[in-house]
Amino acid sequence: MADSSWPRVDAIAYGGDYNPEQWPREVWLEDVALMREAGVNLVSVGIFSWAMLEPREGEYDFAWLDDIISLLHDNGISVDLGTPSVSPPAWFFHTYPEARVTDARGTVMGFGSRGMASHAAPEYREAVARMAGALAERYGDHPAVVLWHIHNEYGVPVAEDFGPRAVASWQRWLKERYVDLDGLNAAWGTAFWGQRYGEWEHVVAPAATPTIANPAMKLDWARFTDDQLRECFLIEKDAIREHASQPVTTNFMAHQSWNVDLWKWAELVDVVSDDHYLWSPDPDAHVLLSLAADLTRSVAGGKPWMLMEHSTSAVNWQGRNIAKRPGEMRRNSLAHLGRGADAIMFFQWRASRSGAEKFHSAMLPHAGTDSRLWREVVELGDDLKKVASVKGSLVEADVAVLYDWESMWAHELEWRPSDDLQFRERIRAHYERLWRDNVTVDFAHPSHDLSRYKLVVAPSSYLMTAESAANLTRYVEGGGVLLVDAFAAAVDEHDAVHPGGFMAPLKDALGVTCDEYLPLREGGSAAVVMDDGTELRFTAWAEDLKLSGAEVVATYAGGPADGAPAITRNARGEGHAWYLSAMLSTEALASVYERVYADAWVEPAGLPEGVEVVTRRGDEEDFVVVLNHGDHEVRLPMAGTDMLTGGVPVSEVTVAGGGAAVVRVPLTGQGGEA
User: Which listed residue (153, 160, 406, 612) is catalytic?
Assistant: First the structure.
């Protein structure tokens, strides 16, 4: 892997956010000693340090940062140097009050949080460029600095701004997109409700309105907001590039934040990094962890990526912040590793005594080194040293799940046929079915080249352009197997129903269209009956399908579509396309996937419940990561070398309940499911 696209860290990167400005200098010496004990080799510094670095406008104080970077370097710890643009200081908002964020109801946000600045404000953009440039000029040649970390979690907590600066930028953005008002009026369908615009200055932001705002307008607003954030990122990146050549990143939140299109963002960073936090109310949150990891690897183009943040135990911002059980942090970390991460990092190194995140867990907890959590941190550091040769290996998948942020933005607007059918829920249902069958997946955009995949699954494709539909049709004609879930291809890129009606652009591929959506009442359910007699219960959603060549695989039994086709299969060219019009659960999907797998020549691994196996492929060997999310020991036949137990040759791997294993398997030998 070229140094230009990855931090200069020889091993698996291990560490986390380090905020030394919160502590007296005598603590710094203890910190670096304990970092060495834990095996830490990379820390992120400076992300929230703007007020310390520029205490007054134009007056910089880098002395303390000089000292901490030198101390880390002297102790063999590399630095991911952050730009502090997520949290401008108090003097900035006092001097430039017009740079504050305004919400949809016109309330101007106050100081004391983070992410408070309007990304459209020229004063903000100029200030972050100066700060990023000053940091890069000072540290661009420092041997400790191996990575630049711009901002923090773009779009969290604030992405949208409805203030006058943002509205002016919005109008300029629309002029570039549509050229003239005729183009805008046509795209937005402003003839409806008498919304036609005659002057550009009349086009306001979709702020609070008596009823819902124009959905095409709101979809464009989501695109505009994403573009504004990327512009700010590029302003800082360009300022850094004037003085420094180290790789640049910003930390994504795959599947956890909704207002940034990571397919576009990934093209701008040198290395993809992600933050991931378990959702405590979900007893199977480890499934969403794997989903986020696969999505991150996919937007990285299949290359290794960085887990920039996760938690050692509980977070602080959920309604009930559940602590991780013994061994869970290790298992979570190795799950990310198995799905392509070459860096395992946390928020944060030392737990904060003050502020909003004092109850957030850390590598060095409030309880200190005489604690289970600290011992697990040290043990994980030792584990990552043992598996260092995994670095640079890749994950290969035969199945792709389609994921389109623009479709999500459109799908989750108001006044859809049913609140019960949600983008993320459908993504989760299908991904979890594949996960439980231990089928490793990539994610892809509907416009991508899909020809290398045996199976493509489209769970949430409400918005689909004619070009993407043609791409999917070509995939099927070329021999691929396509599974499309409900509410598909309803609208185009302007949230307008396609000419020809619902699903019209997929008619050739699917051999079926939809005459009408038939959502169920709250709490309602019915069944579909497969052609082999299997009955599958479903909730919330049904459709009135019109066949145009597809064969019927299942029929509705009860509900508003009683007796009508529910699941279809269509032969097209060398391939087959399936359409699933009912909202089936992960469990009910098992019977459907059994048939789809047979079409696609995909073989589930048949592992015990709760066992996750994923493989990374190197030049000469596979690295098989086995995770046991259950309570009981499992044994799997696998000839190789157990890397976590001292390199012991094994013919089967034994994993305790809640445990994990990493097995090196020669490519000529028998590995796990790839």
Answer: 153
Residues 304 and 355 in one domain: yes
Short-list 278, 282, 280, 281, CA closest to 293? 278
Q: Answer for the pair 538, 584: CB distance below 8 angstroms, yes or no.
A: yes
Q: pLDDT tens digit string along 462-513? A: 999 999 999 999 999 999 999 999 999 999 999 999 999 999 999 999 999 9
Query: What is the domain-level CATH number for residue 642?
Result: 2.60.40.1180
**DSSP 8-state symbol, 350:** B
pLDDT attached to residue 342: 98
Q: Which residues are CB-neighbours of 456 under 8 A, at least 6 positions away?
A: 399, 400, 401, 402, 444, 450, 472, 475, 480, 481, 482, 483
Tens of pLDDT, residue by residue over 125-152, are 999 999 999 999 999 999 999 999 999 9
Tokens of 46: 């400076």
pLDDT digits (tens, 9 = 90+) for 327-339: 999 999 999 999 9
Query: Is residue 421 situated within a structural domain?
Result: yes
Do 553 and 621 fall into the same domain?
no
Which residues 6+ apart lie within 8 Å of 210 measured at CB? none
- For residue 493, the enclosing domain spans 399-600
Residues 383 and 409 in one domain: no
Asked if residue 606 belongs to a domain, the reply is: no
In a domain, 674, yes or no: no
Cα distance between residue 159 and residue 166, in whole Å: 11
* pLDDT tens column, 149-197: 999 999 999 899 999 999 999 999 999 999 999 999 999 999 999 999 9
Query: 600, 627, 650: which is the final residue of a domain?
Result: 600
Total domain count for the chain? 3
Does residue 447 sit within a domain? yes
Indicate if 153 belongs to the active site. Answer: yes
Residue 309 annotated among the catalytic residues of the structure: yes
Q: Of 572, 600, 628, which marks where a domain is finished?
A: 600
Q: Which of 54, 160, 236, 309 is catalytic?
A: 309
